[in-house]
Amino acid sequence: MDQIKTGRFIASLRKDKGLTQASLANRLDISDKTVSKWERGAGLPDVSLMLPLCEILEISVNELLTGEKLTDADYKKSAEVTIMSLVQENKENKKRMLQSVMCGIITIIAVCSLTVIASYIEMPVAIRIALIIFAVITAVAGVGTAATLEVKAGYYQCPKCGHRFVPAMKDYVKGYHTLTKRRLTCPECGKTGMCSKHIIVR
Ligand SMILES: [Zn+2]
């Protein structure tokens, strides 16, 4: 998907309809800065805004993402490419999530085994200490790897404005979290809240 092309397309359709950035933003209940961002190609509209935007501009989501009006023949081909790229992304996200879970399980088993060996089997103190240090390093590396994989699998969605984003690693690590939500600051509206995790792109 070409954000610049989509941005120019939005700008030209908006002008054709005699709308200003502010009046388009107003109809979508968003800030005109967001509209300006799309038109500069600095970001695509949120999934939740795509349908209402397309309705106003009288185009299909597919045309929005392709950045041009499509004929019937183009339409079918382009729909397939768009769907395939979503399917591919979902597949990769699921794979990363699975790898993250596997990595977590292997880490837990390795760290538990090392701890049991270091605690219950007779050995010189130096080796015992070395094993415990090794267990700690394994735990840190394993948790780090699992987190790196997980942060890249899918998106977090802002509860306030619905914007979807992938957080920076440092914000991700800091954020208080439950199994399905994490406290993050939305890059779109700047509000901090419990953002829900979405693995599947719809
Ligand atoms: Zn937000």
Task: Walk me through what this model shows.
- The chain has 202 residues and is α+β, with helices and mostly antiparallel strands.
- The chain folds into three domains: 3-70, 434 Repressor (Amino-terminal Domain), CATH 1.10.260.40; 89-152; 155-198, no CATH class.
- Helix content is 64%, strand content 8%.
- β1 (155-157) and β2 form a beta hairpin.
- The mean pLDDT is 87.
- The structure holds zinc ion.
- Zinc ion binds next to loops.
Short note summarizing the structure:
With 202 residues, this protein is an alpha+beta fold. Helix content is 64%, strand content 8%. It folds into 3 domains: 3-70, lambda repressor-like DNA-binding domains (434 Repressor (Amino-terminal Domain)); 89-152; 155-198, no CATH class.
